[in-house]
Structures are given as C-alpha cells and as structure tokens.
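The following record pairs a protein chain with its ligand, zinc ion.
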Amino acid sequence: MPVRVHIRVSGVVQGVGMRPFVYSLAARHGVSGWVLNDALGVEIEAEGRAEAVDAFVAAISEQAPPLARISAVEVSHIEPIGGESFEIRPSGAGPSPATLISPDVSVCDDCLREMADPQDRRYRYPFINCTNCGPRYTIIRELPYDRGGTTMDRFEMCRECRAEYEDPADRRFHAQPVACPACGPHVWLADAAGTELASDDPVARASEILAAGRIVAVKGLGGFHLAVDATNEDAVRRLRSRKAREKKPLAVMSPDVESVRRFCELSRAEEKLLLSPERPIVLLRKKPGTPLAESVAPRNQHFGVMLPYTPLHVLLVEHGFPALVMTSGNVTDEPVCYENADALARLSEIADAYLLHDRPIHIRTDDSVARVISDEARLMRRARGYVPRPVVLGSESREAILAVGPELKNTICLLRGREAFLSHHIGDLKNVAAYEGMKQAVSHLQGVLEIEPARVACDMHPQYLSTLWARESGLPVTAVQHHHAHIASCMAENGAAGPVIGVSLDGTGYGTDGAVWGGEFLVAEFSRFRRAARLEYVAMPGGDKAAQEPWRMALSHLYAVHGSALLDMDLPLLERVGRDRAQTVVTMIERGVNSPPTSSMGRLFDAASSLCGLRDTISYEGQAAIELEGVAALGENGSYPCSLRQEGDALVIAAEEIIGALVDDLSAGTGPEVAAARFHNAVLDMVADVVARLREGTGLDEVALAGGVWQNARLLAGALERLGATGMAVHAHRLVPPNDGGVSLGQAAIAAAGGGASDAPA
Ligand code: ZN
Ligand code: ZN
Ligand code: FE
C-alpha cells in the first residue's frame, strides 16, 4: 500500500540548494511527488512505500545541504494519488513568509576549482557562484527568494546558464545569482576621475597598481574597500592620511592560512574561524618581525585578518601579496560606500583607481569582526556572513517587536515568535548617513521578513537619535535601561530565563537616576532588574569630552583618592597635562561644572591607561583600554585591593584603593606592563568578590557577562575561569557582540517580557 505525505520544511531553506537535494533524495528512495519553494519555506508531497517515504523524510534533516538551517520538518498524511515522477514546481507566493533568507556565503571549493580551470567557461570569472556559495542577503530585495527579487534581475541568463539553473541535477539549480562572462555582471577598472581604463584583465591590472603602492577602491560584496599593499609603509601611511584615520588598526586580507602564519600566531580555533564560510575579520596576535608595515596596526598587539571571500577577492590577492590592507571604503566616521556613483564622489580624495562592477548591492553590509577568547569564536561586530540568521529565544513573544538599539555601534532587531533578527552593524547614528542606514535597515528587514511590529523598544536615553525615532514611530514605546538590555541580550543568546547576576561592565549608558552608568551588577530577569552593586560615582569632567580624553578621567579618579592635594603630587601625568589644565579640571570637579557623575568601568580603564602613561587622548573608541590590555604582562599575578560598602540595599565599590595602589606602584618604579596586568587582576578580583557576595545574598547560581568592557580577552577569559571554578553557570556572548551592537536584542527580549517602561504612543 503506498502512502502519501505532505511535508513542510522551515528554517533557512531557500537559496541553499534544498530543492535539488530533495529531488535527488526522491530519486534515491524511489518516491514520487513534488517540491516547491513558497513564502513559508519548502513544501513537499511524497508518495511511495511506507518505509521508503519514512526514510525519505528522515533524510531531509539528516542529510540537508551544508548551508541549510532546518528549524522544523512537519509531516502530515494525505490521500495517495499515484504518479511516477518527482518534479520541482515553480515557486508559489504566500501570505506570510516565515522563510529565513541565508546570509552571504564565501566562495566554495567547487567554484574555485572551476575558476582556476582554463577549460571552464567561467575561467577567472569574478562572479562565479552556486547553490552552496555566493551573495544572498546583500542582493535580496524581496521574498520569495527568486532571481526577480534580487539585484540580479537586470542580467538575463544566457542559454547555458539557464540550462544549469533549470536542471535539478545541476549544482547551480536555482542558484539565483548564477551568471557567466557572457551574461552576468562584469568588472572594470577606472582611474581616479572615474574614467574607465581599457584592460583585458582589470583585476590583474588592479593588482599591478596595488603593487606599485597605489590605493585602489574595490567594490566587493557588501560595500567598498580601500586596498593598498600592506607591506608598503609609505602606501599605508598615505592611505591613513588621506582617510584621516590616525591610529585605528586597518584590516588586512591574506590569500591563505600559510600567508597569515608569516605575520600572526594562529591557534586551531582561530584557523577554523578564518576559514569558516562566514569569513569574518579575525583579531590575531602579531608575530615579532612581521613583513607588514608598522602603520597597519600601530601600538596594537593584533592584526585584523580575513581570507578572501568572493571570487573577485581571490583573484585580487593572488599576485604575491602576503596581505593587502582592505579597510572599509569610507571617509572616517561615515558608513561604507556601496554604490558606484557614491564611491566615485566620496572616495575621490582617497583612491588612485577604482575596481568597479555592475552587480548592485541592495543593502550595505560591513565585514564582521571576531576574536577567539577561551577557545570560542566571539563576534565584536556582527554583519556580513551572519546576518540575517536569527537568534532563537527561549520563549515566544506574543507581539512582533522592533528594537532600535542605542546610538553608538547601532543595530536594530526584529522579534517575531521566538526568532530575533538582529540587523547588521549600522554604526554611529550621529552620522547622518548611518542614521539613514538605520531607517533603511528597519524597512529592509521588515520587508524581507514581512514583520509588522506592534511595539517599538528603545534606550532610556532621552536624546539618542534612535530613541527620538522610536517616539515618532506612532507605535507603543518600551524604554529600556541600557545595562539591563546588555544583560538581557546575553541571557537571550544563551537561552537563560533568569534571574541571573548580570555583570555589565561598559562605557556609557543612561541610568534610571540620570547618571552615566557602566560598572553595574544587576540581579536581572527579562521583565525587571535590581541594581545590586555598582562602582562608586566619580565626576566626568567635561562630560562627553572625558571619554575622548582619558587624562580627565585619570584626574577625576585621582581626585576621588587625594582631593585637590593631587595637584601637589609628583606625577608624570601632571607634567604631560600641565598644572594649569589640571587645576582647571579640579576646579570643574569641585564646583560640579559640566562634570556629571559616572559609575563607568570603561572610564576606569581609561584612567588606568592614562596613569600608566599609555594614552591621554584617544583617536578611536576603546583605544585606551585596548592599549592597556595590549601591554599587560602575561605571567603577572599581582593585584590591587578594593573596598566594598553597603549603601541601602546596594553594594558600592570604591575604586579608590585600586587607583591609589596603581599610582604608588608606578611611582615606586614598577613598569606599565606589570601595573597594567595588576590592574586587570584587580578588576577580576573585584568581579569575583562582588559576584560571590551577591550569590550569597540571592542564592543565584547563574552569571551573565555583557557590555563593551568584556571585549577585553584577558578579562573575559579570567572571569570565565574564576567564576566557572565556583560552580556557577557563566554566560557570555559569542554570536552577538558584547558591546552596544548587542543591545537591540536585549531591548526586544525585555519588551517581549513586558519589562522596561512602557508608554502609549505620543
Ligand atoms: Zn560555489
Ligand atoms: Zn551565462
Ligand atoms: Fe553599552
């Protein structure tokens, strides 16, 4: 007796080769029926002997194509209708697409083999791709994921490409970006003025220009890069000065792992991350005596390295460069260019030449940045390769929610059911192009996911541009405290229901008392939190300026220890700053002029960095702390003391003793490497101590670590080890950034649980 089943497969199942896979599976198991893509995912009917159908159904999830992420296979029995063949039917459209579109995927080995084969019709074709690789998220305009819904719709397939596209047995069956030199996009070279330069091989010609030390703007997958030979000091300096990017490390692209080993240490986990299909920029420890120019990452212990992820990049780096600088194609602080005309206009003062192509990028997506800490890959910037894969929450949200994130390192998040779709990194909203990028990300994600939010969640900060946008959206608003959102984000990613002891060590966040928070220990659930311990407030003389100028925080923390007597101390800091300026700042603190109170841990790191003589002013966010971590001596076990006192139902942590001991240590001739290590150890001791006290007081055995300070590898690895050794469950971020890039996820999770402060629409 034949049986017939209806099968619904959901998850990331479109654009990943599901239908040809199902087709060949049907042939193998001798079942008849059909398969199609619709707005809900993949729909199948299959008929045959009961055992054959069972085996067929089981194989769908067991043997699924590598890029598929199946979230459910639902099977129901229906009336058999007979039939001999199995066919692939055209896509159907449906009312509510729950289909998950795939992120962009780096070029696969099969495509690389073809591209290197002189007999292949795609020999050296920079846009080769198949169902297992190529652009996805960056070219999709709308669902269902079909050619017409992508930016490839302007290229009519040639006869041969169409034959591959329509052949269920072909590895390009329904690969939407399929193309060849005859019918697909092409690449060309332009001079500084944008005029096309005739060339048989524009990519090879671009490599020659790079070898001559020039700067080439390269259009890639999610936007433009500015490329320059990473071994050429003059060239890298020229790029820095034209880009007005003084010190921030520049990412590099290397042809292969062997090349990377020439200038970086590489653990097995780091190698795996470099080679993963997501191909993020990986922060790797520099080797001494590297062939790369000093100005690639000055005063930094790491290089940010990625491997080529598109065929175009593969062709570009194969010309004997150990590495090319591939930094984002923008003027510093602006978002990356992703359209040809815009790049020609905005990069004209920087690029000597342009390597352009005519496959439009629908949505700008930066390179992701990751770092291996305690043997696990952890994202610091989540974008290309990861977006729009959802984070699956432990419980269902009754309404669809849009969370608009904070203002710096902005991301947005759409939550529907249990799936939270975190957007790509958008950037600092104070930049008007980034602000436009946020609005574009909101409408794009709402469009391709067909989510109509019923509520918007935002930061409590009344002046954040994202908050103002939320208040004008017309939707009911939930305002969420920044560090509560950080902890909720970590809980959500790790499937923790809470309550937890949340350790939010961060730069800046608006507190419920209006102060600048950032060294917070919260007893937190999604629906509420209690501030159980915090750093003692010190002044931020100059307000926002204090975040740019760590010497101000050094004076402020010194003031907390010594009062105005600090001005009479014999400190190198005072020599560098000048006694007059120091006097002015002390006066500001004493009179409370433009000196808001802060409990920020990030600012405490800034103070320590300045006191160690490393960094008095910064040119990029986090620089002072990064350099402090960078110099800290690895084997040093010394520490500094710290005191706690009870104030109401909260513990207050005075950093005075830490700062006092640090200054004494330095004055006694201890080097900055040892002092920096002891400072890190002191912060770890403090965290372990406070968590132990809160554990005793609450009986909670779960900890969540979140906030930008946890990007510090020494701190995170130390905390995971120390807290883990006490038998507590310790949650930290992996796929979601611990910095403000993860805040929108926490906002969404809190709003879904009815937490935060809700208002009716204005
Ligand atoms: Zn491929
Ligand atoms: Zn073709
Ligand atoms: Fe933050």
